[in-house]
TrEMBL record:
<feature type="binding site">
    <location>
        <begin position="258"/>
        <end position="265"/>
    </location>
    <ligand>
        <name>FAD</name>
    </ligand>
</feature>
<dbReference type="InterPro" id="IPR029035">
    <property type="entry name" value="DHS-like_NAD/FAD-binding_dom"/>
</dbReference>
<feature type="domain" description="Electron transfer flavoprotein alpha/beta-subunit N-terminal">
    <location>
        <begin position="3"/>
        <end position="181"/>
    </location>
</feature>
<comment type="similarity">
    <text>Belongs to the ETF alpha-subunit/FixB family.</text>
</comment>
<dbReference type="InterPro" id="IPR001308">
    <property type="entry name" value="ETF_a/FixB"/>
</dbReference>
<protein>
    <recommendedName>
        <fullName>Electron transfer flavoprotein subunit alpha</fullName>
    </recommendedName>
</protein>
<feature type="binding site">
    <location>
        <position position="279"/>
    </location>
    <ligand>
        <name>FAD</name>
    </ligand>
</feature>
<keyword id="KW-0274">FAD</keyword>
<dbReference type="InterPro" id="IPR033947">
    <property type="entry name" value="ETF_alpha_N"/>
</dbReference>
<dbReference type="InterPro" id="IPR014730">
    <property type="entry name" value="ETF_a/b_N"/>
</dbReference>
<feature type="binding site">
    <location>
        <begin position="227"/>
        <end position="228"/>
    </location>
    <ligand>
        <name>FAD</name>
    </ligand>
</feature>
<dbReference type="InterPro" id="IPR014729">
    <property type="entry name" value="Rossmann-like_a/b/a_fold"/>
</dbReference>
<dbReference type="GO" id="GO:0050660">
    <property type="term" value="F:flavin adenine dinucleotide binding"/>
</dbReference>
<dbReference type="Pfam" id="PF00766">
    <property type="entry name" value="ETF_alpha"/>
</dbReference>
<dbReference type="GO" id="GO:0033539">
    <property type="term" value="P:fatty acid beta-oxidation using acyl-CoA dehydrogenase"/>
</dbReference>
<comment type="function">
    <text>The electron transfer flavoprotein serves as a specific electron acceptor for other dehydrogenases. It transfers the electrons to the main respiratory chain via ETF-ubiquinone oxidoreductase (ETF dehydrogenase).</text>
</comment>
<feature type="binding site">
    <location>
        <position position="201"/>
    </location>
    <ligand>
        <name>FAD</name>
    </ligand>
</feature>
Length: 309
């Protein structure tokens, strides 16, 4: 079986989300990658070095610069003539592209797989991760998205794949890129951070979030996350959100500050190795999954903790 993996990148380098997908795809068969972007030859060269990769298909065109799914999906479908499965990370781009590919191929998509049981059988979370379903895809081509926290990341070096330039239909004329407001930070990106400090609605406002959460994160060299309630309240941008409708993370240490532990938030972080919760409500659901729980006023505990580091 030949698998085609969507490479998540920023036209400069390969993102970590791709590495777990390569591991998942390698359990199905021969791994080929597709790098679609603009001025992204360096990304293809980097991708070819990933352990286990046999070939990299490079589609370099302005039409693919911003990974618009309406442009990328037809390219993937063309390449699927020589592949048995398309596998993408369960990122915003992956979740946008994969359903369109499945629709064009007229096949069923299996979303956010956690394991590969056989060539067409997989496990995936349901009920916000509270149950795991085993699903079997119908015969034919496969379209999958992969939950990155469930698979070990492939090594960035050790591979000797070849790069092959491919063409595509280009701009489908169905959508256009207007702009993006992306927050920039020196801190680790959430999906690759080994330590994450997240804040919730109990922080009360944006100023408290920044003055309490960020110093603690800086002391720990951690990424900064937030609950959906904190994001909806405008404390921080959307890309900070951890949860079922945000980013799925599994760091070595996850510190939840003022987060009650709603089901949708737990679905995004409960695979963390060690969970530390700080909340004044001793009955908060977060304490049911926490390895370490501190019951008390976060406005006193967090500055004291930061000061002792």
């Amino acid at each position: 079986m030949k698998t085609l993996v969507w490479v998540e990148h920023d036209n400069t380098s390969v993102k970590d989300a791709t590495l777990a997908v390569v591991t998942a795809a390698s359990q199905l068969g021969e791994v080929h990658l597709v790098v679609a972007g603009s001025g992204c030859a360096a990304v293809a060269d980097e991708a070819a070095k990933i352990a286990g990769v046999g070939k990299v298909h490079l589609a370099d065109s302005p039409a693919y610069e911003n990974a618009l799914a309406e442009n990328v999906a037809p390219l993937i479908v063309e390449l699927m003539g020589h592949h048995d499965a398309f596998v993408a990370p369960a990122t915003s781009n992956g979740k946008n592209i994969a359903p369109r590919v499945a629709a064009l191929l007229d096949v069923v998509q299996v979303s956010e797989i956690l394991s590969v049981e056989s060539a067409n059988t997989f496990t995936r979370p349901i009920y916000a991760g509270n149950a795991i379903a085993t699903v079997q895809a119908p015969a034919g081509k496969l379209v999958l998205t992969v939950r990155g926290t469930a698979f070990v990341k492939a090594e960035r070096t050790g591979g000797n794949g070849t790069v092959e330039a491919v063409g595509g239909a280009g701009d489908a004329g169905l959508s256009s890129f207007v702009g993006a407001e992306i927050s920039k930070s020196e801190r680790p990106e959430l999906t690759s951070a080994k330590i994450i400090v997240s804040g919730g609605r109990a922080l009360q406002n944006s100023e408290n979030f920044h003055t309490l959460i960020e110093p603690l994160a800086d002391k720990l060299g951690a990424g900064v996350g937030a609950s959906r309630a904190a994001v909806d309240a405008g404390y921080v941008p959307n890309d900070y959100q951890v949860g079922q409708t945000g980013k799925i993370v599994a760091p070595e240490i996850y510190i939840a500050v003022g987060i009650s532990g709603a089901i949708q938030h737990l679905a995004g972080m409960k695979d963390s190795k060690v969970i530390i919760a700080i909340n004044k409500d001793e009955d908060a659901p977060i304490f049911q999954v926490a390895d370490v729980g501190l019951v008390g006023d976060l406005f006193k505990i967090v500055p004291e903790l930061t000061g002792k580091l």
